[in-house]
Amino acid sequence: MQRPMTMLIADDSHITQQILTDAARASELPLRLSTTDNGRDCLTMLNGSNVDLAFVDVQMPELLGTEAVRSARKLGIQTFVTLMSSPPAAEAVETAKKLRAYEFLFKPFQVEDVMSIIKTYARISSPTKVLIVDDSTAVRQIVQKIIQASVFNCEITEAGNSEAALAFCRTGHFDIVFLDCNMPGLSGIATMKQLSIIQSSLKVVMISGDHSSSRRTKHSIAAPAPSCTSPSTRGMSTRCCMPRSGLRSPNLKVTSSAPNFDVAIEGSTIRLAHRLSGHIFEYLWCEKPPYLRNGVVRPAASCSIAPNTVASVAEKTALLQLRSARLLAAT
Questions:
Q1: Which structural domain, as residue segments, surrounds residue 300?
Q2: Can you tell me the distance from the alpha carbon of 3 to that of 30, in angstroms, rounded to the nearest whole number?
Q3: pTM above 0.70, yes or no
Q4: What tens digit of pLDDT does each residue of 44-76 get?
């Protein structure tokens, strides 16, 4: 890229900030980092700092991370956002989808998880040269609109037949070809074989059609291996192109390796037992900040997981539980 990428880290956990910073450094990409520990500063930075990609925690002081991103989106800010949370929350994931977040990371995550997202942003920011091959002008236009809705920055060329497609590939380089299986003259499969000879690194997405009706309608897309369903939405077209570009597909689902806690609220005390290690965290909770006070840790004996590695997760879990029980305000 011509200029350094600006990466925003918005999280009030110093441990999470360090993981994200380590990932940025390990990526060896030209990254300029900005960091904040509250939602209001996050919104200010998103709106005025030309942020390229951002990692934003859902729960932050002063303003929720989701609200900061929502406000930025309303102003037309299209920053490549990854939201973060612990523990898994279906509602937060659904909000992330509505806010067009790329990914949702559940804590604790690893440096490698963050590097994968940084790598994805760097790749999709560079032009992806796409060739669409179909003898139907209408279908080519439909496929073009679908591809343009993906997260990739695509430069698209169209070919109306196999001969034109082969000629384009002999004189120029393409990253991905969307190729109709059934065309007059040279078939799509035969064309694919010749394309692989011309350019061995070329990724091909085969388009199959339903010719059972008089109106020609494309209904599915499949590569020789593995298959890929029709990219009829931004998400589907992105997931169709991701593996063919050597990138991990986003996973906006409630799945996580985050540690789980058994939580009990008794009067003014909230107690969390970490299921994996057996560590117990106790806090006095208050309706006004700081919400958690007089923290006590009761470490489990002979455990390889140090209490401090999950302490910040325990605190956030406690706050989420208190808010879920409506004992604390949501913001």
A1: 261-324
A2: 8
A3: no
A4: 999 987 899 999 999 899 999 999 999 999 998
